[in-house]
Structure formats: structure tokens, C-alpha cells
Specification:
CATH superfamily of the largest domain: Aldehyde Dehydrogenase, Chain A, domain 1
Keywords: Oxidoreductase
Helix content: 25-40%
InterPro entries: Ald_DH/histidinol_DH (IPR016161), Ald_DH_C (IPR016163), Ald_DH_N (IPR016162), Aldehyde_DH_dom (IPR015590), MeMal-semiAld_DH (IPR010061)
Organism: Hymenobacter frigidus
Protein name: Methylmalonate-semialdehyde dehydrogenase (Acylating)
CATH architecture of the largest domain: 3-Layer(aba) Sandwich
Strand order of the largest sheet: 14-15-16-13-12-18-19
Distance between the termini: 79 Å
Shape: globular
Number of domains: 2
CATH topology of the largest domain: Aldehyde Dehydrogenase, Chain A, domain 1
Number of strands: 22
Bound molecules: nicotinamide-adenine-dinucleotide
Structural class: alpha/beta
Largest sheet: 7 strands, mixed
Length: 490
Amino acid sequence: MEVQTLKYPAIRNYVAGHSVDNASTVTMDVFSPLNGQLISTLPLSNAAALDAAVQAAKAAYPAWAATPIKERVQIFYRYKTLLERDMTALADLVREENGKTYDEARAEVEKAIELTEFACSLPQLIQGEFLEVSKGVEARAERKPLGVVASIAPFNFPNMVPHWTIPNAIVLGNTMILKPSEQVPLSAIKIAELLKEAGLPDGVLNVVNGDREIVEAICDHSDIQAVSFVGSTKIAKTVYIRATSNLKRCVALGGAKNHLMVLPDAHPEMTASNVAASMSGCAGQRCMAGSTMVGVGAVDGIVAKIVEEARKIVAGQNLGSVISKEAKERIEQHITEAEAAGAKVLLDGRHAVVPGHEDGYYVGATVIDFVTPDMRIAQEEVFGPVLAIMRTNTLDEALAIENANPYGNAAAVFTSSGSSARYVMDHANAGMIGINIGVPVPREPFSFGGWGDSKFGACDITGKSSIEFWTQLKKTTTKWNPESRVNWMS
Ligand code: NAD
């Protein structure tokens, strides 16, 4: 029998600083969406494999938590230089497993560096509080880590999303289990290896591969104190319910349907290039994608320019692939259904073929006009390079459409009117708002997180808000002077 050599060796779990065999013999194939080729395999871990990782994280916790934060961040300063050193290799890995263009993959690693920089600033942000609360009696509040925590990631940002959680949670003194998406398991192992090279003690970060079984085991494991999740709304809900019913902290980010409201007074060229980039960047596979535009009033000229811009986005050149054959079929089905329901396809990306990559999973940039709010394409997350345009007469009608959608990740308005922009800031029902910005990701130190069905849980996942999530407050009241009297609170 012919033995096929894979481009990447079979993925193994990473526990206590070492690559380890999995207790489970069940494996899954990993394909590159760029060309449909089998590139590796990964283990579908079971609860026993998770437990081994949790025990390693638990063993590493006391020493790590006792290490002063100013020492903990030194490892992340070194790690940042390693990300910079290995930028090209890391971007290549993202490109290969996820299908992004090289520039998009590189931008993802650059964002990982920014997230690491923020974590390095945490000693400056988490000083405690202190007050003499009565004569000779002092109270102080300090932020302490939680213990072993877990981070569950989606396929669409194999490098960036793990960095939403790893640097902050670990700098704040926790030890972690990372569960990458089974569709993109390559980057996570490389991240763990680089952190070890930077000096992270064994067991502080562990990587366990798998799918549903391992996610459920994370929610149920009694030694895991907190769970962060990023993925689709359906799974985010089940993870949030399961983790919190096991009395863990949980923040679970879900899917999105982001509305870009375009007013007639918007700058035509700037709007067209921003809208086209927002819907098609990362092949539309990002939770911040502006997948839905609401044109208010006379915007035909701007729509024509958007189509012009979208034509310049070419699959295999400046447009990457989508993640799988199933994703390609699902996206194309959305386009076909919208057309059958009466929408007008102005630019059709169905059946895109990239010469030399005929087996890759590509969908071309697509613009569909005269979509109505009742169509499936206006309601569901398409997660492909597709812009669905709806039309209204007034901004209030546009906001009513935006407000009615159950998600609440992002919304944006394109206008040259300050008062219209302010009106959208006040009335859009989303956690992240863009004014003439198609992808309004709040960069560090601001925190990332949506509303509604786009996020379950109290804190945001990055930035200052995440400090609350990854720590608990210890309050100490102190008296050293015996002459200080016992008062009503003592
Ligand atoms: P997904 O929900 O299919 O998978 C996410 C994680 O859940 C993966 O690690 C996967 O192994 C696990 N999982 C899958 N099925 C499961 C099940 N039945 N039970 C328990 N765990 C399960 O999401 P995806 O397809 O990998 O990622 C795309 C989705 O993620 C989109 O909806 C996108 O909007 C969303 N996303 C949201 C944000 C955000 O910030 N809100 C960011 C990135 C991605």
C-alpha cells in the first residue's frame, strides 16, 4: 500500500511543554482550502486527553501565579520578538490552513503582535486599590488569577483569535488549555512552541485538539475555572449554558450580521472601497464583515462604484478561498436562493475557478441588490464574500432593519453628516460602531465584543474589559497598631 507523505506531520496535542500522543485513536484529515489537498491529520481527543492537559496546567499554576507579573510579562516581550522573527512562516501557515491571501494572513499575525503588546502593558493597568478606611485600618484590593482556564477557537482566525485570550489570561497569572478549531490546527502548535522558546514554563499553555467531545469535556471539567469561546451563535449558546451551569465563568462570542448604512451624502469613492473591502476581506469569513448594506435614498451612483470596486477583487489573487467545499456550496446556495426570490445579482461570484487551483474552495466577490429583509440572505450569516444590499427611504427605516436582527456585533454608517453619524451611534443596536469605517474593530486598549446573539457573558474578550474576566478581586483589611480601637465594623 502506498504511504502518502503529508506536508505537515500528524498534529499531536501539546501538554506540559511537549508534543504528546493522544489517548484517542480517532483522527481527522486536515485539508488546505487553497487547493483541496490533504496536508495533515489531527487527533480527536477524548476526555482523558483533556484531563492530562488539565493536570499539567494545574501543576504549573501555583508557581506561575506566584511569579510577579513584571516577570511574567518579560516572557511576552521575548515572545513578541519571536512573532516578528517568524512572521513569514506564521503567515504561510495561516494561509495554508485557512486559505487567506498572504497579506491577510500577515495582518492576522500583526494583530497577534498588537494583542501581545497590550498584555505586556498589564502591569501598568492592574495595580490594586488602597485606602485607610478607619484610623489605622487599611483596606486593599488586588487582582488575582482564577486558576486553569480554557480558550476555544474558531477556524477563521487561526493565529489572531488564540491571541485574544492567551497573552492576557496568562500574563494575569492563569494557566490555560487551548482548543483550536479542528479545521485549522497548525498555527496553535506553533504558537505553543514559540511561547516555550520565549521561556514560558511547561504546563502554563497546553493545546488539546478535537471537536464537540472535547468542548463538552472542557465545559464539564471541574478543575477548569473559566471558559472563553469564539464561534457560531448556535454553539456559543450551548457552550455558555453548559459552562455556566457547571458554575464556571464564561464569555462566548457568536456569529454576526453587520449592517452598513449608506447615505446619499457619503463620499462615493471612500464608501465604495470600504464597503467592498468589508464584505470581501478574509473571503467574508469574519465576524466583522459588512455582509449587509442598507442604501438610504438615492445611492445608485455609490452602488455602481461598489460593483466597480468589487470587480477588482479577484479569487486567487486578492481574494482567498473559503474554508471548505461545504462552505462554498452553502454560500452559492444563498446567492441562488436570493436571485430566485427576486433580488438582482449585480456581480456573480458563483463557480469561481482559480487556474492551477481548480480543487480549491473559491467563491468570487458577489454583489446582490434589491434584497428584502424577509429573504434568508438578509437574515442569516452567509460567511462568504457576498454583499446583500437592501434599500430604504429613510435612515430610521434602515435602523429599524438593523435593530430587528438578533445579532449585535457591528454596524456602520457612511455619511458626511455629523448629525446622521451621531444618530446611528445612538440608535444602532450593536457593540461596535463604525463611522465611515467598514470593519470597526476596536484596537487595543479598547475591548472587542458585540451585543445580542453575538456575545453571551458579561465581559468583552480583549482589552481592558478582559482583565475583569480573567481575574478575581482579593480584598484585605489590615491593622498593625494595637492602640487602634475596635470600631463598629471590627
Ligand atoms: P463553530 O461554532 O463551528 O466552531 C467553533 C468551535 O466550536 C470550534 O473549536 C469547534 O471545534 C467547536 N464546535 C463545533 N461544533 C461543536 C459542537 N456541536 N459542540 C461543541 N463545540 C463545537 O464556528 P466556526 O465555523 O469555526 O467559526 C465561524 C463562526 O465563528 C462564525 O459564526 C463567526 O461569525 C464566528 N466568529 C465570531 C467572532 C466574534 O468575535 N463574535 C469571531 C470569530 C468568529
